[in-house]
Amino acid sequence: MRIDILTLFPAMFQGPLTESILARAVAEKLLDIRFHDLRDFGLGKYHEVDDRPYGGGAGMVMKPDVLVAAIEKISAKEKPYVIYLSPRGKRLTQITAEKMAKKHEWLLLVCGHYEGIDQRVIDGGFIDEELSIGDYVLTGGELPAMVLIDALARHIPGVLGKDESAQDESFSKSLGRKREYPHYTRPEEFRGMKVPDVLLSGHHKEIEKWRMKHLG
Ligand code: SAM
Predict the structure, then answer these.
(1) Domain 181-213: which CATH number of 1.10.1270.20, 1.10.1200.120, 1.10.760.10, 1.20.1250.20
(2) Which residue of 47, 70, 136, 150 has the fewest CB atoms within a 10 Å radius of its CB?
(3) Does ligand 1 lie within 6 Å of residue 61's CB atom?
């Protein structure tokens, strides 16, 4: 899957994309991540990307001409599915991530900042979907974009190793979209707390029954 990211802060993505499973997915070309610095599309001597809100009020609004120039440049030959990360968007869920990973080969993630983006970028059809990662407000769309990439990557074939299946995880179809059962590992007893006997029994049917009973 190719994911382009339009952001004022590309450096923020270092870490989440350069470690662990996502780094491996990038190295193995299962994920092709490309950054576009919105500042490069800024206007005037100071490469301005934002301006004061009409109607007054605190904060700045990201300019539609700058954003659309960037989106159009990235989409010049072929059109990606464009997602604006926004607290006003539809809530990201496991089902959304599963479907999106199957349906789209190329996403463009637009990261807002300040008060957000000029509504005409959305109304003008330059955004295909507004997506929220939860009912709280973050300073920018970069962390939400990273959350989305991580949630999607888990559903791209080959990204998870043999021992890291996306099946039987919380909210997966195979667990009836419920929360997963608890896990235990060695030692058998830790600070007076014992691993449930059934998990030590080797009875696969009983273990399965116990696990299903302990879904959240
Ligand atoms: N004024 C906006 C509001 O009240 O809905 C909040 C803007 S927020 C400070 C700046 C940017 O962070 C947004 O444009 C969006 O890209 C991103 N953002 C903040 N919270 C988010 C969330 N829960 N989900 C997705 N993106 C979010």
Answers:
(1) 1.10.1270.20
(2) 136
(3) no
